[in-house]
Design goal:
Elements lengths: L2 H32 L9 H22 L7 H5 L4 H4 L21 H7 L1
């Protein structure tokens, strides 16, 4: 069993344990309603199971997800030059009406190209 599969298994165990803690809490509340007792708090074992399940879930999710990247964009952009930052090919526009404003614009030249 590899380390990655162990963490995935712990993730599943954490989810199952948390669902069981929630179900136990709902059963406890139902029991208190049936016996007409006041609700003060959940039993310690249910609280402990919920907290341990959450800790196990957080740990295993962090291990399964992998490496994190820096939040600051400056860290990723430090290696790039200024010319490559402004080079966005999806914004290239070659056929637009701005060329009509040029003094050297020739409408007949465009008609022969099409």
């Amino acid at each position: 069993m590899t380390v990655k599969s162990l963490h995935k298994f712990l993730l599943i165990i954490g989810f199952v344990s948390l669902i069981h803690a929630a179900y136990s809490a709902a059963q406890h509340r139902t029991y208190l309603r049936i016996t007409e007792q006041d609700f003060y708090s959940l039993p310690f074992d249910i609280q402990l199971q919920a907290v341990v399940s959450l800790i196990l879930l957080v740990y295993s999710i962090l291990q399964v997800v992998g490496d994190f990247r820096e939040i600051r964009a400056a860290v990723d952009l430090q290696a790039k030059s200024w010319e490559t930052l402004s080079n966005i090919p999806s914004f290239y526009t070659f056929n637009h009406r701005g060329k009509c404003l040029s003094v050297h614009y020739d409408d007949n030249l465009e008609a022969t190209v099409d």
